Amino acid sequence: MNTKLPVQRPTVQIFENYTPEDYKVWKLLFERQSSNLKGKVSQEYLSALNTIGFTSDKIPDFREIEMRLKPLTGWALKVVPCLSPQKEFFEWLSQKRFTATCWLRSMDQLDYLEEPDMFHDVFGHAPLLSNTYYTSFFEGISKIALAHLDNPKVIEMLGRVYWFTIEFGLISEMQGLKIYGAGIISSSGETENSLSNRSKKHDFDIRKIMHTGFRNDIIQDNYFVVESYQQLFQSLPEMDSVVQEVVRN
Questions:
Q1: Quick one: pLDDT at residue 118?
Q2: What is each CA distance from 213 to 163, 164, 188, 216, in whole angstroms?
Q3: Which among 18, 118, 240, 248 is least surrounded, fewest beta carbons within 10 Å?
Q4: Over the stretch 17-52, which tens digit does the pLDDT of each residue have?
């Protein structure tokens, strides 16, 4: 019989509770992934990383993040212990709050973690919360989802949009193909794979994305490429149109 107790995750960020190992983990992951991302990540993300004030020597303070984001987009982070239920997740997004954990993986989990921790949630997602088109796209998805929470098919399709954009999206910039999805940004394996010839790249097509399945237990083999963050935002009407077709049928 398994008598192992579930891990109790924090529901509020208390800086005094971070340990020397936490600071070491943040520093190692930050420096390693920053090196991995050189020449590969979106320029907008790099600029946002500076705007939001992240460094390798300091674990991000959610209050400071909110102060920096407020005059730009009005967004903030909402501490949660683990992955949020769909309704809760979309409700917070509709209120301009991105749900994020505030605990860090241990040293023996640097390369593999079954659940998202603060490095994924904050290093991967928080910087681009300073981008108006990106956050408006986020907010738009949440409003469509909240109107159809009782329709599993719609929620599944919106989950695909989230997966292939916010988590695993690529963007075409003047310097070439770049990464903007948080699932790639926070993963050395995904970073290397996403821009390699081993994976397939597809032009951004919201209808195609909504009908493309994925697996969350493997390195991805399909990525969709946007031309700009504005294109994400501009896809919302078509996304809603596809949803209405599903509802009618």
A1: 92
A2: 10, 10, 23, 10
A3: 248
A4: 999 999 999 999 999 999 999 999 999 999 999 999
**Range of the structural domain that residue 105 is part of:** 15-243
Structural domain count of the chain: 1
Is pTM beyond 0.90 here?
yes
**Any domain includes 143:** yes
Residue 125 falls inside a structural domain: yes
Chain position carrying tokens 């796209």: 137
Q: Are 96 and 76 contacting, i.e. CB atoms less than 8 angstroms apart?
A: yes
Beta bridge partner(s), residue 203: 225
The C-alpha atoms of residue 87 and residue 25 are separated, in whole angstroms, by 32
Q: Residues 62-105: pLDDT tens digits?
A: 999 999 999 999 999 999 988 888 889 999 999 999 999 999 99
What DSSP character marks residue 58?
Answer: B
**In this structure, what CATH number is given to the domain that contains residue 115?**
1.10.800.10
**Which two three-digit tokens encode residue 86?**
């769909």
Closest CA to 78 of 16, 25, 122: 122
Q: Answer yes or no: is 2 within a domain.
A: no
Q: Which two tokens stand for residue 64?
A: 């400071």
